[in-house]
Amino acid sequence: MTPPLTTDGSLIAAEKPCAIPDLALPRTWKILVLAPHPDDFDAIGVTLKHLARNGHAIALGVVRTGSGVEDAYRPGLTLADKADLREQEQRRSLQFFGLPPEALTVLRLTNDADDQPIDCPENGALIAAFVRAQTPEIVCLPHGNDTNNGHRVMYALLKQAARGSGHPLALLLIRDPKTIEMRTDVYMPFDQADAEWKSRLLRCHDSQHHRNLRTRNHGFDDRILTLNREIARGLSLAHEYAEAFELECDNVPRTGNGSLITAFRPQSPEGPST
Ligand SMILES: [Zn+2]
Prior knowledge:
Elements: E1 18-19, E2 31-35, H1 45-53, E3 58-63, H2 79-97, E4 104-107, H3 121-134, E5 138-142, H4 149-165, E6 169-174, E7 186-190, H5 192-202, H6 206-216, H7 220-234, E8 241-250
Helix pairs in contact: 3-4, 5-7
The structure holds zinc ion.
């Protein structure tokens, strides 16, 4: 994790949200997705597809959990069976995405009664060691200001790991349907063709699709794409959909104006494209 988070030192602060295709991210930068649940990767599938096509190495660490699989989905499953099922769904989605199986690491953390990871020293040490071994420049993970406890805990564990490492690290905090409030610093705009591709990716998580149909009366893909449509509308984009992120940088020197967003330098002086 030795390269600095800047390409040439000519940094400018992003005063308004930047489109990810306009960012000058060095291709050598590795992207790590840190997912408290199987399917958090898929929620930002279009961003990751764009980064993969631009030559970035992508790795995924996903917590092993049986959480979110209803008994009615497949009666008789134990919690371990449910965790196996969710792992299989994640492997299917990565195959559809086009990542090799070795890009996935299943993280066996200490979980609570709901099979969600807990904020404890053992989990902190495991996440710190995992991030250290992966050597990413960017980590994507759900935003910490979220009603979902697993999302909050993973954010807390990663922040502890980042502070402990002292290495520069950019966090792209994902806006999820359960995010309470966040700032949008960067976004990935996309069109209907990518939305259809993303729908197929999300439907690999069949247990989650059925849970959404039963409890929310719409599919898992509809839930995520509705959010993506709201994001695009909120940013007044020409594209119909967008994935959104808040950027946080750890261990990067603050610039004169105090902004940490300077680690990301838009290529276009005109600002974000739509
Ligand atoms: Zn999640």
